[in-house]
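INFO  loader      accepted 1 record
INFO  loader      residues=358
INFO  predictor   begin
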Amino acid sequence: MEFLESSPSTSNVIQYLTADLSDKQLQTFDKTYIKKIHRDLTPERIECLIISRNLFEVIPLDVFKFVNLRRLEVCELSLRVIPEEITTLSHLRHLDIRNNCLQTIPKFLSKLGMLNEINISGNEISTFPEVLFELNHLNTLHLGDNRLEIIPRHIDKIKKLKVLYLGGNRLAEIPDTIGALRQLTCLVLCDNQLTTLPQSLAGLQNLQRLSLHNNLIRTLPPQIIKLENLHSLSLRNNPLVRKFVDDMAFSPPSLMEIAGRAVRKNIPCNQINHILPSALITYLNSAHECVNPHCGGVYFEARFEHIKFVDFCGMYKVPLLQYLCSPKCGCGCSDNGPHVVGCHNRLTDARMKKVLLG
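INFO  predictor   done
INFO  writer      dumping tokens
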């Protein structure tokens, strides 16, 4: 057992201490246990209690006699329930219950009105706990490595959130209301099943860290370049990275498309309408213009996906998806024009590597 002073030692001020009882192979816990350390020590003097990784599978009731607790850590105990007696800890600000077997978070947790940080990662939670919306001082929320499939649209009600950790769940999308969390500085969405991100992320002007690795993301919303305070963006192991950096593939156009491209580029539209059947005119009208302003060509089904790296806050570059009529349209272009990363290109910008590879 370890005790650490956490307030100045004076004759008129009570010293609050941290009691670390983790990894002690304890099967039971009694408040009198601390008397073995010092006969004058009382539960009222303990501000932080850590009883993680012991042998009991419920939170011992004597824990709730430490009435001045501001931090409680009960990790890796195979907990299945949180006892209602926890509401007696009216001063609690930090609750760490990660890596247990919890499936729900009880409603009575809302009585812990001073709670500002809660870590519920590594449990078996499949539904976003509604009680979290009643914790008015909550600024740090860890819900990683659970079984969440949906984040409710009213996530924006937790207005004071600064850190939101949702990595390691089963999320396929993020609601656009997340952009209303104006105080958010850290957003972790890695290890999910996301294919896209809401444009409302541009509203997170205080965001400094955005973790997106190990998802199914193919493109980023252009609005992301508006995040002027972002200095950490992790994208590794997404199709966006694998496709554009490792293996840019291009399927050659069919003979019909080659002919259609030539007709659209070289014959005026007013002449085409008089000499071709209506079916071919419909096909020709389905053409898309190449985004390379120096090309002037078109494409139908066969298109070349390319990434244009846009300067982002003067720190690194963000990849944005566009389409070209052929790989040649991107060759030799600067960052002011189309920029293609193919299988023979080399990424020489260290900042670019940092973003793409996380």
